[in-house]
Amino acid sequence: MGASPSPDPIPSRAPSLLIVDDDVGFVHAAAELARMQGFEITIAGELNTALNRMRQRDFDVALVDIDLPDGNGLQLLEDVDPDRTRAVVVTGRPTVESALQSLRSSVVDYLVKPICPERLNELLHAAAVDRRIAPPRATAEQRHGMVGEAESFVSVCRMIDKVAPTDASVLLHGESGVGKELIARAIHAASGCSGPFVAVNCGAVAGELLASQLFGHEKGSFTGAVSRHLGFLEQAQHGTLFLDEITEMAPALQTHLLRVLDFGCYRRVGGHADLPVEVRIVSATNRDPREAVASGRLREDLYYRLCGFDIPVPPLREREGDAMRLADAFLSELNVRAGTRHAFAPEAVEFIGHAAWPGNVRELRNAVQRAYILADDGVVRLSPQLFPQRPPSESAHTITFTVGTSFEEMERRILRKTLQHYGNNRRRAAAALGITARTIRNRLARERGMPVTDDEDL
Ligand SMILES: Nc1ncnc2c1ncn2[C@@H]1O[C@H](COP(=O)(O)OP(=O)(O)OP(=O)(O)O)[C@@H](O)[C@H]1O
Ligand SMILES: [Mg+2]
């Protein structure tokens, strides 16, 4: 997208730069300078890749080398719209012809390598100002390298900017791999909190162990507690505690956590003193939090405490154009790290833009990495054949289990899904499952850690 010609308020998106060059050293240095000015960068090591990128979107500035492995960079200038893009030619081999050709086209500057960093800085700065583009509020680095320009993603970034400086608890929810942890880190980074960011996966640790990991324990509070242990909560003092997979936290522990949020204090396992704590809580879940409350996985009162500010993170398929932007960013990262100049094949560009990406950004990142490793001729090919068999996705009316799921977990999920299907009507769900409503009630009570009155086999 180019800068809008409208006279309205200054757009807040980052200015964009396309670097077309196969000289890794120059690309690296120019990207670094531009990043410091808040530019969002796309790199193309070849003419064809650059043409593809320019067809997909507009750039505010294009730095174009003349001698490219597959042709003359000046060809690109025919595709540049001077109202939208400032084209700057950079070359290590200046010639009168190329200088004249540049002058005749939309090129605003002609730089000869080695390029003076101050000159390039000035040029980028002028381009940003000229385009009336305000420096972005947070650069990619400040946002932990989050890439994305789709409206649905930009609105998430706006929410991050708004909520970060407050002390509101934030609940992030969205499918697996959409970037919840990255967003949690971005919130912390922009919060100005002096303490650290401490992440805890509530689904990965068993109940009692999680209590001691979270709240810490006193020496001798249980067998093996040979010394006092500082909990994550204490470690996150004046910082952010990220509670991942919050709906997997055992019910008893949810009660303890509620106490922390209500009173700002906690007790170590085996301790008697109430210790004050000042921590920002950001939590995340792959589930629909309201559904988790309805089905009893998440205490309702805790939900309201955690959800001071709710951020639904959209799946990648609902972020128009971002799959390619992310893929470009991942490939650039791999190229810069290894000093290579691999580029996507045209079919790969097509595929990336149209694939559904059920595993979201994580799946895309892994796919790019895999294709990059396999690209022995420098052409990164991505096609459906490259993907290991995807597990069938779950819908509102189906349940999918992977091999290795325990009977207990299967039983629990069958019960939840059936209840959900019948609008939480236990009698109808029981009839469908061939059990009694009392069995359902007892199973739910057991999960919530409440006394079970009577039970029958499911
Ligand atoms: N906007 C983004 N820009 C760049 N990288 C991203 C972006 N979003 C996610 N990623 C990358 O995708 C991967 C998955 O992100 P993350 O772990 O934050 O997802 P998640 O929502 O927490 O997933 P899960 O629910 O499975 O825990 C990470 O490697 C992360 O760095
Ligand atoms: Mg995560």
UniProtKB/TrEMBL annotation:
Modified residues (4-aspartylphosphate): 65
Domain Response regulatory, chain residue ranges per copy: 16-128
Domain Sigma-54 factor interaction span(s) in chain numbering: 146-373
Protein name: Sigma-54 dependent transcriptional regulator
SMART domains: AAA (SM00382), REC (SM00448)
InterPro entries documented for this protein: AAA+_ATPase, AAA_lid_NorR, CheY-like_superfamily, Homeodomain-like_sf, HTH_Fis, P-loop_NTPase, Sig_transdc_resp-reg_receiver, Sigma_54_int
Keywords, in A-Z order: ATP-binding, DNA-binding, Nucleotide-binding, Phosphoprotein, Transcription, Transcription regulation
